[in-house]
Amino acid sequence: MSRQQIVAGAADMIRRRGLNATSIREVAKHAGTPLGSTYHYFPGGKDQLATEAVRWASDAVSGVLTAKLRKGPVDGMKAFFTLWREVVSENDFQAGCPVLAVSVEETSGREALAAAAEAFTTWSDQLADSLRTHGVTPDRADRLAALVVTAAEGAVAMCRAQRSLQPLDDVAAELTALLASAVRT
Amino acid sequence: MSRQQIVAGAADMIRRRGLNATSIREVAKHAGTPLGSTYHYFPGGKDQLATEAVRWASDAVSGVLTAKLRKGPVDGMKAFFTLWREVVSENDFQAGCPVLAVSVEETSGREALAAAAEAFTTWSDQLADSLRTHGVTPDRADRLAALVVTAAEGAVAMCRAQRSLQPLDDVAAELTALLASAVRT
Q1: Reported confidence tier of residue A1, pLDDT bands at 50, 70, 90
Q2: Do B147 and A18 touch (CB under 8 A)?
Q3: CA dihedral (B35, B30, B117, A64) positive or negative
Q4: If we measure between CA atoms, which residue out of A156, A60, A91 comes closest to residue A52?
Q5: Do A173 and B143 touch (CB under 8 A)?
Q6: What is the domain-level CATH number for residue B69?
Q7: How many structural domains are present in chain B?
Q8: Phi-psi domain of A155 (left: phi exceeds 0; alpha: psi -120 through 50; beta: other)
Q9: What is the mean pLDDT of residues B94-122?
Q10: A83 and A61 in contact (C-beta within 8 Å)?
């Protein structure tokens, strides 16, 4: 079991149950790694592991955005929603976003919270850059990018509570029209 | 210390640290109530207390929406964002929405999760009803209402991570324009 797999396992646990309910012990068990080697890999303990889990998730999402935004902001936005839709539907509404999970617990470590802030900034900036490239003014591009990221994050939570994909689908439909019109004008 | 105050205290703890990190013992301590009387009030334990805390928060937000939607959907939406802005800013970015908190932890009790689903539905329906009354088609009213609720929820999380009110303000500005234009057309 590689270091990377432990990080991915931690991200999975956090996106399901939150950070407080995630322990190094359970991550090690989940990954089938002795607790000792887990501490060896992550001497900073839970905060280090959580920080790396958030960065790992951030990079994974960012990679999808980089690829899909090549076709333009509307395609990138749709891919962002498709990605979250898959996370929610493939895990029977039991998994969401580890970045959001870390953001809403006041006991999250400072480093992990900073990594969460950076993840949101990275995704928003990628969307905003693409919108600007397609003729949207800088200020509006920032606002629309924030709207896409926040609405997807909130929709994931609403889908989990309601055990329905409707919120993600409704929000994606509305944002598709909004971004298409912003790019056209 | 009344039963109601214990419920409000539980809602406050959940919106700060999440449900997993909230214990009956700490809620009782926070409320200055003996643990025994807390269990007397809530024989169903933590799930019952969490369920009532979510309903309490749901009703509080719903009351604001009822009052402010009288002036129309744009005013109601703005009030919804103002409310969350106050929660975040008055608590130094340490508090968010207890309904979202319960929605993103797979260990949340079934009843509490159902109460969270109902809260999201109630707020969305209030906004959608108002949009319909102001001439928006039923389907679009549902989509726009979902967008308002999900974006506000996601923005609260992003504001907490980034220790900035910018995401809530950016999203509110964009949604104000969108709803105003939807009502006009």
Answers
A1: low
A2: no
A3: negative
A4: A60
A5: yes
A6: 1.10.357.10
A7: 1
A8: alpha
A9: 97
A10: yes
